[in-house]
Design brief:
Strand order of the largest sheet: 1-2-3-4
Order of helices and strands: EEEHHHHHHHHHEHHHHHHHHH
CATH topology of the largest domain: Growth Hormone, Chain: A
Helix content: over 70%
CATH class of the largest domain: Mainly Alpha
CATH architecture of the largest domain: Up-down Bundle
Number of helices: 18
Number of domains: 2
Radius of gyration: 22 Å
């Protein structure tokens, strides 16, 4: 197959040309090479086992994003600092998560997911134990960023990129399910962490989490050691990605930059309700407990949204799915700006979670549509880093706008404007793209 730029797909490599024999179990889709290397085919029974394992790893490792939020009041009281200083571990943790996603993704591209997964598990374990033993807030913050944040990153973007290699016809739903583990963690871990902090203190709780991560994640990673048998399909996907890039009037680097800009824009908008809904409810006189319930409702409906977006992406492609989610997210932000009744806020928060949950997984699908499989971890890591920076920027920007205006209404309008930038990029990409999405073609 030859593209408009002269790209010629290499001749598919066949297993019977390799210098070793391949022994195959058709029922499980597992290939046993004579040199001891175990492989499995995409869409096989093992692929689904691997997906379930990825969700479990993401749920366990996702504690790194949520525990520090729950422990913040206890940490503030223990160290005797103000709220801004007590928030420093969260800030450094998000920075570590953002940068670590790129590093872990690149490592996964080269070594497979088991290596960065094991490294992440060890870093999480050491990080939580070190956090619990930290004598100063500054040391705890450094540990949160350098160990917990980076270790946690291995259980999000790299897992999504890895799962994308194991499914062709159902890639969208598979990636969405893998991404949902992060939201499951946000639903399960906060009440558990709060329970143990109330009973045993935040230090003992962190040490316990560190031990738990090590003894659960490493055994699960033993199920992730097989490689995917995709010699033929990987080359075909390389050629298809090259063809779609050839149909675009921009270079791969420009496309990467556009996706990163879109990621920042969508998550600046997303951060407004997620970061400030608790404070917003407190300002309205409803109490912070109501705001916490709305946040939990948001994340709960986000799980359904992430899984549902996978079904949609398998049918219409990643760009259209992300565009749909971005438009609906904008509608929810408009509703937030127009209505502030207690019942209305509960309903809008549920809608917001339902609308925005599928946006981030859609970036993983787009990366697989436009870039070669061997680049998936690194490319997706860069986009996810942009989305996390957008969350950090949006949370800070909304607070500054509130301080300047004394109201969150202007902050919601600011979120709407950033969301329009994301929508504009996706519309442009959709108009410039030619042919069917790679995922649809792979079916």
């Amino acid at each position: 197959m030859t593209s408009a730029r002269g790209f010629t797909a290499p001749e598919p490599l066949r297993l019977d040309r390799t210098p070793w024999r391949c022994y195959e179990s058709r029922e499980a889709g597992i290939h046993k090479m004579a040199n001891g290397t175990a492989q499995a085919a995409p869409e096989s029974a093992y692929a689904w086992v691997r997906l379930c394992t990825a969700v479990a790893l993401s749920t366990i490792g996702g504690v790194g994003m949520w525990s520090v939020v729950v422990a913040l009041p206890a940490i503030q009281a223990d160290f005797g600092v103000d709220r801004g200083a007590a928030s420093l571990p969260y800030t450094l943790g998000m920075i570590g998560f953002a940068g670590g996603g790129v590093l872990m993704g690149r490592l996964a591209d080269r070594q497979g997911i088991a290596v960065p997964g094991a490294l992440g598990a060890v870093m999480l374990s050491l990080g939580y134990i070190g956090f619990g033993l930290s004598p100063t807030l500054w040391l705890a913050a450094v540990v949160q960023g350098a160990l917990i944040g980076v270790g946690c990153s291995a259980t999000f973007g790299p897992l999504m990129a890895d799962i994308s290699h194991w499914f062709l016809r159902r890639r969208g739903i598979a990636v969405a399910i893998a991404a949902a583990g992060n939201y499951v963690a946000g639903t399960v871990w906060p009440p558990l962490v709060q329970h143990f902090i109330a009973g045993y203190g935040w230090r003992a709780t962190h040490i316990g989490i560190g031990v738990f991560c090590l003894v659960t994640m490493l055994p699960l990673l033993l199920l992730m050691r097989r490689s995917v048998a995709t010699q033929d399909s990987a080359m075909g996907q390389d050629a298809a990605a090259a063809q779609r890039q050839a149909d675009l009037p921009v270079s791969p680097m420009t496309l990467q930059v556009l996706l990163c800009i879109a990621g920042v824009a969508c998550c600046v908008a997303m951060a407004m309700p997620q970061v400030h809904i608790v404070a917003y409810c407190g300002d309205l006189g409803y109490g912070v407990a109501r705001g916490a319930e709305m946040l939990s409702l948001m994340l709960g409906f986000g799980i359904f949204s992430r899984v549902g977006s996978g079904f949609i992406a398998d049918r219409i492609g990643g760009v259209r799915t992300l565009l749909l989610g971005a438009v609906l997210q904008g509608v929810a932000l408009v509703l937030y700006a127009l209505f502030d009744g207690l019942t209305s806020l509960y309903v809008i928060s549920a809608l917001f979670g339902l609308f925005q949950g599928g946006i981030v997984p859609s970036y993983a699908i787009i990366v697989r549509e436009y870039f070669a499989p061997k680049e998936a971890g690194t490319r997706l890591g860069l986009v996810l880093m942009a989305t996390l920076l957008g969350m950090a920027l949006g949370g800070w920007m909304s607070g500054v706008i509130f301080d300047m205006t004394g109201s969150y209404r202007a902050a919601f309008l600011n979120g709407i404007a950033w969301n329009l930038l994301n929508v504009s990029i996706m519309l442009w990409l959709l108009r410039r793209s030619a042919g069917r999405p790679v995922i649809a073609a792979a079916a």
